[in-house]
Amino acid sequence: MKKLKAKILENKKIGPDYFLMDLDSEYIVSHYRPGQFIHVRIEGNGSRPFLRRPFSIHSITGGDSFQILYKAIGSGTKILSHYKKGKNLDILGPLGNGFEVDPEKNSLLVAGGMGVAPLFSLAQCIKKTKSQVLTFSFLGARSKNNVLLESEFRRLGIKVLVCTEDGTCGKKGLVTQLLQEFLEQNPSFKKTSVIFGCGPNLMLKTLIKLAKNLNMDCQVSVEEIFACGVGACLGCAVNTRHGYKLACKDGPVFRGDDIIL
Ligand code: FES
Fold it and tell me: What is the CATH number of domain 2-95?
């Protein structure tokens, strides 16, 4: 992990409140693992500086550039959304542990809403291994406007299944139901696949229970608010079978069966 300056190459709106920011950092691109994150300093408007904000390393876009995906809903991310090309960001990273890929197993990527952010670089990484395993992406969102990156996953050669809570895109229902139905219809995947999940805590709880019931390997990236991001403030504890662990330092990726629900 390093403290770095990363130049903004692009900062574009891709949907209601959703933004993709391209950043230039040879160090991040050459040292990251999918599932890791950067911690970004956002300057306040002359008042007190904000705490750093964590963003998953969402995508590697070629050369030394990578992307973060974010939703401009809080005061910090709203300021971030106005940053222009050419500005240098003060970042720490790459932080956290990241996902572990088994090249012998199929990957089932299960994203709830913004949970798609770390799963896309995981998909890129799996595709790079050129193994013959299959990768499916299950994208769940509240509504059609919140379904992110469907075509980008397809362009990687990944099969995509979509659902929305209001039924305006894909199947109507929750992404965990979508996965469950898929596994009922394709039972051979239960033995040959690893589930990778990211999304709201309630969704992850359901996903972990589902994986446990089906005796499947499951890794989840937990969504926590990180104050320090480096294991110093103890503010992101997760209860696991091995005691309390820090999501920013020991995670954000945990084995599903390690987490005590
Ligand atoms: Fe400070 Fe994790 S955010 S210990």
Answer: 2.40.30.10
